[in-house]
Design goal:
heterotrimer; B: mainly alpha; MetI-like fold; two-stranded antiparallel ribbon; 14 helices; C: mainly alpha; 2 domains; 16 helices; 72% helix; 0% strand; Extracellular solute-binding protein (chain A); signal (chain A); Bact_solute-bd_prot1 (chain A)
Chain lengths: 565, 296, 293
């Protein structure tokens, strides 16, 4: 897929997660105030210049006697809101960390996300590794193989904060494996939080107008689509509304918009996922026998005009976003965050566009079948040459603690510096697997009790948004997005109405390196051709045969072996 | 004696430029060895494993290598031909325009698309050719049913070539305009005295005047015979038109340059360079032999 | 009679062809202008074609506050000035001796083939970067200017333009005893204004449009030249389906197709403005005219 292939090139560096936020609100008056206790940059320079070696200090929040500095390769973030003179490595947040544990970051280089991988490769090839680096799985493997990074096992045990450990533990052992080599922990894994599966987003105002019931089964969904297509829900007297949007990749891309994943899972099919079949064998979801029935259904939906005729030539994201924004569609699959983008764009053009999430289409047990994603994202590694690998972990400790408002000093710092934006330079997300649901639970508690006193400081804005939206629903698209995503959307992310399938493997095996491009091309072509009717569904069996012959068999065995470990 | 001192000055004149080329083009060519390695950045060029011709062989071993290579050559060749012909014709058309402000305005306008990236143009092109786009609307005036152009293996290549010509012809025209401007005006004066009309002047003076430039640019454009235009295709294609538009570069991209398969990418680059180099040598020799004309 | 009619018809046809081609080429430009003056949400919905919808200049007001844009703009100007002049000098110095026949300058063929091969073969990103780094040119404007100073294509083009000059002028009897540099400056350069304008334009365009070297060679995004700065906007814009919620939020605030389009348009202006200026050199007869004076 055109965008998918670049997906993790960019995602690798871009999916920087929750840590990237800037805690701030209005009030620019105090922009230049720095805590009095923070040493000035010049003072630190002189201290390091004296070259006093700080004693090792493995306490999670223990402060070094002398400042410890590590160099790091940075992804260019958005610091347009930093006050004049502040930088991503010298701002209220980093000064807070310096004050707390006496650790600071110096950029080895900083680069736009689109060229991050190349810059990393260049650094490595030149033997010019920064002290700390955030890398993807493949680079991690290579770094371990080349013996360039430090073993963090012991340091992790000693220095990682309880919060960090608890967050990792929330993945039930699914997270550390990818960073563990021969029993040694070689990196701190970043996490991808769960709950980003597809919901069905529906224009509630259109449902009301056409007097339709909210959807549950696939039949309901199809009925609604038909009504939206033929009964002119936008009332412009033109037959210009579409049914269901779809992705040219059909399904199987987690955490993206307009994939048909939940229709496939209704038939027990999980395209593009490595799963275990009923007999416990590892199988590639796109080749599972269940696919046939699912494809038959989906191609029928296309033929009947339920699915957007032109989905194949629409650019994923951009084009679909435009259709949603223009109010030409009232049904789309997507994760809970949809209101932020693209759904709020619809609201900007039509304040009545009231998108609501539903669990649909439900299976015979009344559940929505979803799959989970790779909990691993990026990895923080420390160069072997760096004398204080624990310093990087401390940095992350303080950073994470502060993000969660668990450190009263941090809260104090953030409140005191209200109006001054900070920036966390280590762009590595570590969070609970059910982070989105935790947000919802505490938000709901505040709403039910009518008080945000117990709410985390960075959640208070959501509470405000919820209340504000209640007064005047949809009046402010940004407020609406926050309220709808966090309250309506997140409510459905870890609900009882879900049945979850955990894929067993996410990485790349040796044979994949040479054969996957061919197999994926075959897969992409076959899926889309069957859906649009260029290829009869009977050909699916030929596809499976060919897929196995061209290396699929071999790869499946490798994956099974890897998954068994 | 005079010759030798002159040669010395020539060498000296070439020195700074050659130094730049030596430092920044020739020394880095050592990196071509990556084509024969399973290159791992963390290990560097010195410690990466040697795999011989594996990387080069890879593109020929994949099941659809025939399709991918054919697409590459067909699309690239058509672009090379169209990309040569249209600017020449357009330069000649411009040259015949009398009104100089009109000429300059047109010249500046047709030069604009060169500066707009494929990412942006792709959005516009997708719109133009969509079911409710302008092209289909025009066709419907003639009673033609709407066509999904960008999903059609019949139409996709012509669209690639057409839009590529459209983007680049204005920029390509510049060289020919310069060549025409360099033609000795005495020739035209003499032709007018001989009673030659505009068409004859075009055929017997202007055209022959730009022939060396045409030959030169044709030869140099052979260097692109395996470059079918990654950015354009990458931004416009979809799985339905793989069979008519999947080229070596898009394939290699999907294999994953992003996964740092530097070996494969370098090998493909090397293959392209060798083919281009051979073609250029051949056409150099041909020009030499047939018309005793030295291209460079 | 007939021939006059023919020629009028022919003229009309020529104007029509040229006009139509220009209209086609103007379309994306006008579309971009319309987008940059339209309201964000109308653009997101694809309502804007060739005329602004809900006209606003907010993109341009925002642009005025973007310090980095202007910083990068200046870096690009600096790059074009330095790089353009360096390239022109090197190209002329190389093209002159290489335009001589083998009988006059025996080593020319060797040089030519070396130059042609640098046009075709390259060792890829990593060794290229390492050379530049070894020479301490990373993070300097010279790193953007020197490595690409000699474009083989331009040199070859220049050689051919020089060889197309009338032989008698090349030898320029009056300048007996003058050295190659004097001949180059006094005879060749004034005779080659159209070709110099062409090569100059190619060089300027090359420097102005280059974005990747800036990204790789500059360790601090503050030093990005303009197109590097622009590129990162366009690239991140198209991948939004894969972003996290925090980034989507930020995107909906920050990323802004109208603003980005305005930036792209402004970044194109200098290069569009420079062409009409150079066009006066593309006039028939200018070559001889300059010699007679």
């Amino acid at each position: 897929m055109k965008f998918r292939s670049s997906k993790w090139l960019l995602a690798g560096a871009l999916l920087t997660g929750l840590l990237s936020g800037c805690a701030s609100t209005g009030n620019e008056g105090k922009a230049s105030t720095t805590p009095a206790s923070t040493p000035t940059a010049a003072a630190i320079e002189t201290q390091t210049a004296v070259n006093v070696v700080p004693s090792p200090n493995f306490e999670p929040f223990g402060k070094y006697e002398e400042p410890v500095t590590f160099t790091m390769g940075l992804t260019k973030g958005d610091y347009s809101k930093l006050p004049q003179g502040d930088t991503p490595v010298d701002n209220v947040f980093t000064r807070f960390i310096l004050n707390k544990v006496n650790v600071k970051v110096e950029p080895a280089w900083e680069i736009d996300a689109s060229a991050y991988q190349q810059k990393v490769a260049i650094s490595l090839a030149g033997g010019d590794i920064p002290d700390v680096l955030v890398v993807d799985q493949k680079t991690l493997n290579q770094l371990v193989e080349s013996d360039l990074i430090a073993d963090l096992s012991k340091i992790y045990e000693q220095t990682a904060s309880p919060l960090l450990k608890e967050q990792y533990a929330s993945y039930n052992g699914r997270i550390m494996n990818a960073a563990t080599f021969d029993g040694k922990l070689m990196a701190l894994p970043g996490t991808q939080v769960g709950g980003q599966h597809n919901l069905l987003w529906v224009r509630q105002d259109w449902l009301n107008k056409l007097q339709l019931q909210p959807p549950q089964t696939l039949t309901d969904v199809v009925g609604i689509a038909q009504a939206f297509i033929s009964q002119d829900p936008d009332g412009n007297n033109k037959a210009d509304t579409l049914g269901l949007l779809a992705d040219p990749g059909i399904a199987g891309y987690y955490n993206t918009f307009h994939g048909l994943d939940t229709i496939f899972s209704l038939y027990g099919a999980y395209p593009r996922q490595w799963i275990k079949d009923q007999s416990g064998h590892v199988i590639y979801g796109s080749t599972a026998p269940e696919m046939k029935a699912a494809l038959t259904e989906v191609s029928k939906l296309y033929k009947d005009g339920i699915i957007d005729k032109q989905f194949a030539v629409r650019k994923p994201g951009e084009d679909a976003g435009a259709i949603i924004a223009s109010g030409k569609v009232g049904l789309v699959f997507g994760p809970w965050w949809g209101p932020y983008w693209p759904l709020s764009d619809a609201l900007k053009n039509d304040p009545k566009a009231d998108w609501k999430p539903f669990l649909a289409p439900l299976d015979e047990n009344g559940k929505l079948r979803v799959y989970t994603q790779n909990p691993n994202n990026l990895f923080l590694v420390v160069s072997k040459k760096f004398a204080h690998p624990e310093a990087a972990i401390k940095f992350l400790n303080v950073q994470n603690q502060a993000r969660y408002g668990l450190d009263p000093d941090a809260l104090d710092m953030i409140l005191k510096n209200q109006g001054t934006d900070g920036y966390w330079p280590i762009q590595l997300q570590v969070d609970y697997e059910d982070a989105v649901h935790r947000t919802y639970t505490s938000l709901k508690e505040a709403i039910d009790t009518g008080s945000d006193a117990n709410l985390r400081h960075d959640f208070k804005a959501m509470y405000e948004a919820y209340k504000k939206n209640l007064e005047n629903p949809g009046a402010d698209p940004t407020v609406w997005a926050e309220a709808t995503a966090r309250y309506d959307g997140e409510a459905l992310t870890f609900s009882d109405g879900l049945t979850k399938v955990d894929p067993v493997f996410f990485g790349r095996t040796a044979t994949m390196e040479t054969k996957w491009a061919t197999l994926e091309k075959l897969e992409n072509e076959t899926l889309i051709k069957i859906v649009i009717g260029d290829m009869p569904v009977e050909k699916f069996d030929d596809f499976v045969q060919q897929w196995n012959k061209l290396g699929g068999n071999e790869i499946t065995q490798e994956v099974a072996a890897a998954a068994a470990q | 004696m005079r010759n030798r001192s002159e040669s010395l000055i020539y060498h000296l004149m070439l020195l700074p430029g050659m130094l730049v080329l030596f430092l920044f083009s020739i020394i880095p060519m050592a990196g071509i060895v990556i084509a024969f390695q399973k290159f791992v950045p963390a290990k560097g060029v010195l410690h990466s494993a040697w795999v011989g011709m594996d990387n080069l062989a890879f593109m020929f071993q994949i099941p659809d290598s025939r399709q991918v290579f054919l697409n590459t050559i067909i699309i690239a060749a058509m672009k090379v031909v169209a990309g040569l012909a249209v600017p020449i014709i357009f330069a000649l058309v411009l040259n015949e325009l009398r009104s100089s402000w009109f000429k300059r305005t047109i010249q500046t306008i047709v030069y604009i698309p060169h500066f707009i990236s494929w990412v942006i143009l792709a959005g516009i092109i997708t719109n133009l050719f969509s079911l409710d786009g302008i092209v289909n609307q025009l066709l419907s005036l003639f009673g033609v049913d709407p066509v999904m152009f960008l999903a059609s293996n019949f139409w996709f290549r012509p669209i690639l070539i057409g839009t590529d010509v459209w983007k680049e012809f204005g920029f390509g025209t510049i060289v020919y305009l310069a060549a025409i401007a360099g033609i000795n005006p005495n020739l035209y004066e003499a032709a007018v005295i001989d009673g030659a009309g505009r068409f004859k002047q075009l055929m017997y003076i202007t055209l022959p005047g730009v022939v060396p430039t045409i030959i030169l640019l044709s030869t140099l454009s052979l260097g692109n015979i395996l470059n079918a235009g990654f950015d354009q295709i990458f931004n416009l294609y979809n799985p339905l038109v793989y069979e008519s538009s999947d080229i070596v570069d898009t394939y290699v991209f999907r294999v994953g340059l992003v996964e740092m398969q530097y070996g494969l990418a370098t090998a493909v680059g090397l293959l392209k360079s060798i083919v281009a180099f051979l073609l250029i040598i051949i056409s150099y020799m041909l020009a030499r032999k047939l018309s005793n004309y030295r291209i460079f | 009679m007939f021939s006059r009619f023919d020629s009028r018809l022919g003229n009309g046809l020529l104007y029509l062809v040229a006009g139509a081609a220009a209209a086609l080429c103007l379309a994306p430009f006008i579309h971009s202008i319309a987008v940059s003056f339209s309201d964000k949400s109308s653009v997101a919905a694809g309502y804007v074609f060739f005329w602004p919808v809900k006209f606003t200049v907010s993109a341009y007001t925002l642009l005025l506050n973007d310090v980095q844009f202007f910083k990068s703009f200046l870096i690009s100007v600096q790059r074009v000035l330095l790089g353009g002049s360096l390239s022109m000098i090197l190209t002329l110095l190389m093209a002159y001796p290489l335009s001589k026949e083998t009988e006059v300058f025996r080593s020319r063929n060797l040089y030519i083939w070396i130059i042609v091969s640098t046009m075709l073969f390259n060792g890829g990103l990593i060794p290229w970067y390492m050379t530049i780094k070894t020479l301490h040119l990373t993070n300097t404007i010279w790193g953007l200017v020197i490595p690409g100073a000699v474009a083989a294509f331009n040199v070859i083009l220049m050689i051919n333009f020089f060889r197309a000059l009338p032989k008698e002028l090349q030898d320029a009897g009056g300048m007996d005893g003058a050295g190659p540099i004097v001949l180059l400056m006094k005879i060749y350069v004034p005779l080659s204004l159209p070709s110099l304008a062409t090569i100059g334009l190619f060089t300027i365009v090359g420097h102005w449009n280059a974005f990747f070297d800036g990204m790789i060679l500059m360790d601090d995004p503050k030093d990005y030249p303009l197109q590097t700065y622009i590129q990162q906007l366009v690239v991140s814009e198209r991948n939004f389906a894969n972003l996290t919620v925090e980034e989507l939020k930020r995107l909906s605030e920050v990323s802004n197709k109208t603003l980005n389009t305005a930036k792209i348009l402004i970044s194109m202006l200098p290069i569009l403005a420079i062409y009409p200026f150079l066009q006066k050199y593309f006039t028939k007869g200018i070559v001889l005219g300059s010699v007679k004076e």
